[in-house]
């Protein structure tokens, strides 16, 4: 029983740290998110992905005017620490762009260039952010263009996969 408790404590400790970091952001204390993240990472470096995601999510919900910039800085720190951003990180970035002046499509382009591939949930978050972004150029009229671009990308990916499959069967 003591061994099973010891095994369960690290995930619980990670969850507690992550919830604390995200909650501070939700309480509109964006200025405390990054210092808390640094302290939590010092205590447990192996939990970095969950802690970084919590920080980005907390900043996205902070209501701070500079929440997108702060969240993007955390993602840059994440990459510098050699922690790969996850799809949930991308959803949080899009959430941060809701109702603000940042163009969510710019976030998408930047993250695509860095290798992060969105799925259905991320595109849903992107569309919600485009619908509510102020003065960013991400007006709903640009959404059909985004959908055409995504469809073209999917067709190219399917074609490349078929070509790779055919090539493998010839050898």
- Which bin fits the share of residues in helices? over 70%
Beta strand count: 0
Binned strand content: under 5%
Structural class: mainly alpha
Described by the principal axes of the CA atoms, the overall outline is globular
The residue ranges in which pLDDT falls below 50 over 5 or more consecutive positions are: 1-8
- Radius of gyration over C-alpha positions, nearest whole angstrom: 19 Å
Mean pLDDT: 79
Largest sheet: none
What's the helix-strand series?
A: HHHHHHHH
User: Distance between the terminal alpha carbons, to the nearest Å?
Assistant: 55 Å
Q: With helices defined by DSSP (H or I, 4 residues minimum), what is the helix count?
A: 8
Structure overview:
This protein is mainly α and 171 residues long. It is 75% helix and 0% strand. It has 8 helices and no strands. The radius of gyration is 19 Å and the shape is globular. It starts with a helix and ends with a helix. Residues 1-8 have low confidence and may be disordered.
What topology does this entry show?
Layout: H1 2-26, H2 30-43, H3 48-60, H4 67-80, H5 87-97, H6 104-113, H7 120-132, H8 143-170
Helix pairs in contact: 1-2, 1-3, 2-3, 3-4, 3-5, 4-5, 5-6, 5-7
